[in-house]
Amino acid sequence: QVEHGIPTREVITTCAYCGVGCSFKAELQGETIVRMTPWKNGGANEGHSCVKGRFAFGYATHQDRQLSPMIRDKITDPWRKVSFDEAIEFAARRFKDIQAKHGRDSIGGITSSRCTNEEVYVVQKMIRAAFGNNNVDTCARVCHSPTGYGLKMTFGTSAGTQDFKSVDKADVILLIGANPTDAHPVFGSRMKKRLRAGAKIIVADPRRIDLVRSPHIKAAHHVQLRPGTNVAFMNALAHVIVTEGLVNETFVAERCEAADFERWRAFVAEERNSPEALAETIGTSAEILREAARLYATGGNSAIYYGLGVTEHSQGSTMVMAMANLAMATGNIGRDGVGVNPLRGQNNVQGSCDMGSFPHELPGYRHVADDVTRHLFEEDWGVKLLGEPGLRIPNMFAAAIDGTYRGMFVQGEDIAQSDPNTAHVQAALAALDCLVVQDLFLNETAAYAHVFLPGTSFLEKDGTFTNAERRINRVRPAMKEKQGMSEHEMVCRLSTAMGYPMHYDSAAEIMDEIARLTPSFAGVSFAKLDEMGSLQWPVNAEYPDGAPIMHMDRFVRGHGRFMVTEYVPTTERTNRYYPLILTTGRILSQYNVGAQTRRTENSQWHPEDVIEIHPHDAEERGIETGDMVSVGSRIGATTLRARVSDRVPQGVVHTTFHHPLSGANVITTDNSDWATNCPEYKVTAVQLTRSNQP
Ligand code: SF4
């Protein structure tokens, strides 16, 4: 799919895959992309790239791409290609009919972490202003919503604390539930470089990830903890820090709420939180836990990096707060080389959250019940807004099955494949009277849609993405929109047809509105981004050129707040019928549900998902590498090819979720984080049996 030729022009833009946010020079001959060259001045990548960003752009011109709006009365009818006007009128009429019959709250929508800030902003605005409710949620619900909750509760804002460069100054890296060399390759390489230079690493992961196996890196500790025991692990480390006198008392006294700290100190000091008491639960030795705690507390600059292995648990939010507690207790926050750093999965998951995609928050993480904020938006938008939170994604599905939620706008997300318990999601989607899908492809979700609006690839978009280090990067159009209209214009027209007129002459104008209404974006404009290359929010009077490191002199909330983090085991348990725990992850060449990478030359490197099983568990079941195995959980069953491997410990199996046929989410459960409903993808009790299927 890569065209060869001599480029005649180039455009600087941003990779549309992971949350590292690498800058690229898109080199073109006319309207044909010739190559993507990593840009040496890119703030996040400094000229580096990975196999996805550099080579996997062919999906933008893939034959599967849909370029025409389409409608159909019933999901069993064939699609009918129509004009944009007809598709938008059709969608608006259906949405209005649903509201007339079933009430204001019977429709809503989901924003996409793959789209630009500007595109996300207009969708949430349409839902709040034109639909008249707060039924807006984002795909961050199923990945980093606990990060948003946990960091806001402890530090006061829902974002990572450092820039990527900061890792160059770390002496100790505590890496939990993340596999950066596969999932965030350019940052993973940077971390590896620092480790080769002598920094120490503590990896907390059930699986032996590359950073544990690399011969060039001596992992100081690999805590091969049992899936679902993260909070117990953190409490054990905290117990050692508190009881062995390793607390940074000066930092805590100056920077944190005293009463909350004392409550936390007393809690973690309890004997039940000691390494000796928790080692068996965690699946490691008390000595390893004690050594890890001492190293983190006394090894110099200690930085925590984490991924979905932290958030996608029933205690995801508790775990995020537990990590923040540890950083505050040891004073590892507010300078280079330290901090609490979520490795964000999608290119714009930070941005989609910043833009007000949650049902309880307006842009800038301000609660819809806050009268001052709501009035600010009401005045600017010229419409009355609701002060009560709307539905989260799982509530939308439940309400659809109940019949009270009947219309949905889905922006660039394949919820039928990516959300847990596929059968439940499919039943919810099938129950809707109007599902509008805005996407590049007729994905699994579109099978349930009544209206299809063709989306634009990142090579056609004008706007911004915000990466994991809060860096706002420009996304510049390298080519004209192939289907003839920007995504934000389609949304504006739908909003107008619904009765709330919206129009912007450009994406820059949308950013100006975001800046006007969002204090952390107050100084952001396309002109300033073009001048500076990129900006890390907050960008305001205090930080006119942005802030690479947050919470330097004070926390955003004033004083840091310790939270008591009681370990509560997940209700998903093994038994004799389901004796193994399934956990999931990603692989370097593929990306999420694979909608893009499967349509590029990268598909040759990972043509199917496989399930890793420990040699002992495989032998017990007569399974060999290459066998097809049936994987059954309490929710459903699927078939995968087996790979016998000691990368997983005995009792744990692991698979990826890049291919729809393997349907990993057919078997994942409905369990979710207590605070945010982020699904517990990482713990599913399963049984494996050899399948008769060839
Ligand atoms: Fe794209 Fe992430 Fe690879 Fe960078 S590391 S090129 S952002 S996929």
From TrEMBL:
Keyword Membrane belongs to the record: no
Domain of life of the native organism: Bacteria
An individual GO BP term: formate metabolic process
Keyword Transcription regulation: no
Keywords: 2Fe-2S, 4Fe-4S, Iron, Iron-sulfur, Metal-binding, Oxidoreductase, Repeat
Entry GO CC: membrane; oxidoreductase complex
A GO molecular-function annotation: 2 iron, 2 sulfur cluster binding
Domain spans labelled 4Fe-4S Mo/W bis-MGD-type: 8-64
Family assignment from sequence similarity: Belongs to the complex I 75 kDa subunit family. In the C-terminal section; belongs to the prokaryotic molybdopterin-containing oxidoreductase family.
Name listed for the protein in its UniProt record: Formate dehydrogenase subunit alpha
